[in-house]
Write a structure and sequence with these properties.
The chain has 234 residues and is an alpha/beta fold. Helix 6 links the parallel strand 2 and strand 3. The chain is globular, with a radius of gyration of 17 Å. The chain has one domain: Vaccinia Virus protein VP39 (Rossmann fold, 3-Layer(aba) Sandwich). It starts with a helix and ends with a strand. It has a seven-stranded mixed β-sheet, sandwiched between helices. 43% of the residues lie in helices and 21% in strands. The protein is built from nine helices and seven strands, in the order H-H-H-H-E-H-E-H-E-E-H-E-H-H-E-E. Bound molecules: S-adenosylmethionine (SAM).
Length: 234
């Protein structure tokens, strides 16, 4: 009998940016600081979710671990998941340096992670969901739905494309990234749209609804970046 496992998308195969490279990982925080205020983002998110000590949170695509560490410092029980061993090792050593030892780091991904320890209060993912092609985004959202408690919250921040003037907007974005970070951020932005799987806002919103989520609010940071605050209501 054929099962999903026979044709499951290989989420570990490199598509686009190579986060298995230790050099790439070492420059990640510094390069992102050129166009994001990550500590502010993380604190605003935790404040907006009104997290309380003892609650549980899964962060998919945790990268260098800065959000997971901040969440753990606020007393959350955090599972930080990433497919990249290089990212995880960097994140773990950062957590150790900061004496944060409560995070459960897991080498896995949106599609392969098996959550066995009871439903959680929050699932978050920032700039990672676009690594999955659309069909697989929908499967991942259904998995996430099953990981959450009733009333649990899902937060997605990502590059999400507004349809109107999308080509002009992407061209301007690539130019502005070049102004902020030279050839490195220009190439990074081009690779994003050429090889990775950012989708239209209406596609992602349709998937969220079909997976069973209610979108409580959407914050458009620009015509290419959005934050979705969603809720599992059964
Ligand atoms: C652009 S970084 C985002 C890191 C961090 N969340 C942030 O906001 O800066 C994308 C991360 O997602 C990870 N990733 C890629 N595909 C993934 C998947 N299928 N499941 C989980 N993580 C994935 C990459 O290894 C990388 O660490």
């Amino acid at each position: 009998m054929i099962t999903l496992n026979d044709w499951l998308h290989d989420e570990v195969r490199k598509i686009g940016k190579d986060y298995s490279s230790h050099d790439e990982v070492a420059m990640y925080d510094e390069s992102h600081a050129k166009f994001r205020d990550v500590p502010k983002e993380n604190n605003e998110l935790l404040d907006t979710l009104s997290v309380k000590p003892g609650e549980s949170l899964i962060d998919f695509g945790c990268g260098t671990g800065v959000f997971a560490i901040e969440a753990a410092r606020r007393g959350l029980k955090v599972i930080a998941i990433d497919i990249s061993p290089a990212m995880l090792s960097y994140a773990k050593s950062k957590a150790t340096d900061l004496s944060v030892d409560s995070i459960n780091f897991v080498e896995s991904g949106f599609l392969n992670y098996q959550h066995l320890s009871g439903p959680v209060d929050y699932v978050t993912t920032s700039f990672a969901f676009h690594h999955l092609p659309d069909y697989w985004k929908a499967i991942a959202l259904k998995n996430i739905y099953n990981m959450l408690k009733d009333g649990g919250r899902l937060y997605i921040q990502d590059v999400v494309i507004e349809e109107e003037n999308s080509i002009e907007n992407i061209n301007s974005f690539i130019e502005s990234q070049e102004q902020l970070g030279g050839e490195f951020l220009r190439a990074d932005a081009i690779e994003h749209f050429k090889d990775e799987f950012s989708t239209y806002d209406w596609v992602l919103e349709g998937m969220l609804e079909r997976a069973g989520f209610t979108v409580d609010s959407k914050e458009s940071i620009s015509n290419l970046v959005a934050r979705y605050y969603c809720e599992k209501i059964t």
